[in-house]
Amino acid sequence: MDWQLAEAKNRFSEVVRRALLSEPQRITRRNDSVIVISEKEYQKLLGKQVSLVDYLMSGPSLEGLDLARDKSPMRDIEL
Description:
- By secondary structure, the chain is α+β, with helices and mostly antiparallel strands.
- It has a domain at 2-47: YefM-like domain (YefM-like fold, 3-Layer(aba) Sandwich), CATH 3.40.1620.
- The protein has four helices and three strands, in the order βααββαα.
- The chain has helices at 5-10, 12-21, 39-46, 52-57; strands spanning 2-4, 25-29, 32-36.
- A three-stranded mixed beta sheet has the order 1-2-3.
- A hairpin with a 2-residue loop joins strand 2 (25-29) and strand 3.
């Protein structure tokens, strides 16, 4: 449903109720508009966001990777 800003202010509870129960609500001020949607719909738009820890933990396994330091002497250089 479309609302003018003044009407949406006066009936804000109804705007929120309709956004939660049915569909997004458009609020217009002059030539600008905003959309009021439920948090559930907002989360669907964002898609599943993976935390940094989960992203790093889902990477390739480092098991079996040799991380030991090479003990061989370094090369000689002149300074």
